Amino acid sequence: MSDIKIKEVKTDGELMDFIKFPMDLYAHNDNYVPPLIKEEKNVWNPAENAALDFSDFKRYLAYKNNKVVGRIAVLINHKEVKELGAEKVRFGWLDFIDDFEVSKALINKAIEFAVEKKMKMIEGPMGFTNLDKSGMLTMGFDKLATMIGLYNFEYYPQHLEKLGLVKEKEWVEYEMDFPTVLSEKLNKFSSLIAEKYKLKVLHFKNKKEIIPLIEPMFKLLDQTYNTLSTYTPISDDQIKTYKEKYFPFIDKNYVICVEDENHQLIAFAVTMPSYSRALQKAKGKLFPLGWWHFLQAGKKNDRANFYLIGIHPEYQRRGVTAIIFKEIFIRFNKMGIKFAETNPELEENKSVQALWHDYNPTNHKRRRTYSMKIKSENPYA
């Protein structure tokens, strides 16, 4: 008989155990990057997370000998069910010790939730929406995690596959050495495209000048990715949530926006200095000294991360990326950026992957979601 006990998270104390468990699990791992505890708490606060307006969820902790040994959240995005017909339970915040009975007990809660809610499958690890962290690491365990990428031990996917879950979606990530010299070809082509379509790169004097463009950026993001089978439009409330979550980390020099002659935003790229080491030093808290580590990472850093890139469909095959990359090159050179890393990109999204082609990218990480079709009965019951 298993000595694993599963308990639903109900109290504030249990929520803190839920949030802090991976920080303890990875305490001696140099590649794990902890989130900010405040941000993790906000995920479960309806006043802070707009996705809770159209989602159901439960969170669980696994105990062995009265000690927390695992966690999982199970959820249903009803907007996704309605708009895409995806009758599934998402599972995420999945962490566990290397004990098969623990992982089995946790996944069992996702299956139970799916049976209870009459959903046809489970899939994870995923968050509430497309913009949340997704995908279990299957390659790149020896690489430093990013602020928006999940990290896990190598045994995680082994456990899920043993449980009968199969690959659902695959993401790839790339790392590249940023060039110290801009190619003459890119320089000329960028100028030619800008002149031909009467396009202009915006330069911001301060962060406040970016605020009016945040909503157009997200709308452009919708237009860029709405052809992907898994994409659901971003609501105004979600835009507000992500704006409040990530805007404090934005540096005006890392945001590139391109507008047409009518002052309409037609392309943008949001990059950031790597905050991974700063987050490790902050240990989940901005105070008393976490803010200092973030400040230093913004001032002196040789690594940057790509977070969001959007291009209006009418301009996706017109060479606009040349304008974006020329501007990124100019700014990165000034700031001493030598290395750049992309965010996770769906393996099927070849158009985005093509953006990095001229920079000799190395595919250094892979991640995937795992799924299981659900029958009317729980196979583990």
Q: Could you state the order of secondary-structure elements as H and E?
A: EHHEEHEHEEHEHEHHEEHHEHEEHE
- What share of residues are in beta strands? 25-35%
Q: Tell me the helix content.
A: 25-40%
CA-based shape = globular
Give the low-pLDDT segments: none
Distance between the termini: 14 Å
The biggest sheet amounts to: 14 strands, mixed
Q: Give the number of helices.
A: 12
Structural class: alpha+beta
According to DSSP, the number of beta strands is 14
Compute the CA-based radius of gyration: 21 Å
Average pLDDT figure: 91
List keywords for this structure.
381 residues, alpha+beta, 14-stranded mixed β-sheet, 14 strands
Describe the protein in words.
The protein is an alpha+beta fold and 381 residues long. 34% of the residues lie in helices and 25% in strands. Strands 1, 2, 3, 4, 5, 6, 7, 8, 9, 10, 11, 12, 13 and 14 form a 14-stranded mixed beta sheet that branches. Strand 2 (55-64) and strand 3 form a beta hairpin. Helix 6 (184-197) packs across helix 11 (320-335) and helix 9 packs antiparallel against helix 10. It is globular, with a radius of gyration of 21 Å. The two termini are 14 Å apart.
